[in-house]
């Protein structure tokens, strides 16, 4: 009973949120390099190029490019068994469409992955975590079929180079975010789709689903190729799981929740079953969305199915079919309402540990594939006390409750869970708002939204708590 012996405990980050060093050693600009800092009330701006005088927090990250050895030593101190990060595509192919990679970029990840291994951490690597070379986005992003070829070349290059040091690979981070059309940042970061204010909602959805199709083909090609490069590779998809509950037992609400969940399930259905589900084809027909495909696409998708599913989980949502109720959360679908049973974070995310167990059950019953929880955590405003210490009991509480539900899913529901990595195990730049002050870390980084500060790292209270959790394999929560 309890967590399996080889359970992969660890932490998770993404290159663009922590590496910094955005223009060194031959790296080209990525789509995140033209995202300004924002906040809860003012969305991040997507600029066409780097504009002097604007604040671009991803240029700095937390400077991990130069500090990784010391930072990794802190992760080792917590006893991490694995570490999830991503490869910055534009370090390897600065423009994205070159035929030869940038050797300096490859050398950086040689050193980084070797350091994880030396410190006893299994690297878990996302190929595309919201980062595409800006040049490719200007050429249409994933709506342009040529991007499939560029992505496959990038993936093949890094999978060959790191075939001995990396075993766990994820293709596209939170690939389903883009179905949320309430904020253009999602289609932009998932697929490199530059917002066009002239586009109608129908045109936007047409472009988004075309990109998704191209990503399905790209992902399937990479899964197949990866297994040829090293049959021991474990290659998974990565889904943002926000379970959607009906607001009441009114069958209209229940049906609305079922339909909304399809925007998440369609991704798992294609990645795992290798074919488009019928509800999806019906939706395309109904909305008159036409996907350009090549003759072999469906066969490629059928062959390149994933070995496991990885998920992020932060919150749940609730939906009503009653159109007179306003959208209250940033969940991006009509009829979304606040759940009166749940508290929210300062950023409006509904805290729901049982929702994690519920999601694990849904996914496992549907797919029968092992599940890796590669993101879970809470963003908080934090300030060190006079001694420089951060008592983040609220985070401990959040993580404890969620991990307890994972355990139940394993023990009572029989779900196969491979591992658990806390999101932002060290404070990093927030993806959604570009803030530093939305902190997730177990390690505090003295840096503000404008990049000011000593950049000193210090252990929060949750640091020693998580170390105990890992040392006891999840027994001591
Ligand atoms: C996920 C992303 O959306 O959630 C991460 O994969 C992100 O990149 C994390 O940082 C938390 O979101 P945010 O917007 O609070 O940073």
UniProtKB/TrEMBL annotation:
The keyword Hydrolase is assigned to this record: yes
Top-level EC class as recorded in UniProt: hydrolase
Active-site residues, Swiss-Prot/TrEMBL: 375
Annotated GO CC locations: cytosol
UniProt key word Protein biosynthesis: no
Keyword terms, alphabetized: Glycosidase, Hydrolase
Annotated GO biological process: carbohydrate catabolic process
Pfam family, one: Glyco_hydro_1
Gene Ontology MF terms in the entry: 6-phospho-beta-glucosidase activity
Enzyme Commission numbers on file: 3.2.1.86
Family the UniProt entry places it in: Belongs to the glycosyl hydrolase 1 family.
Protein name as annotated: 6-phospho-beta-glucosidase BglA
Lineage: Bacteria, Bacillati, Actinomycetota, Actinomycetes, Bifidobacteriales
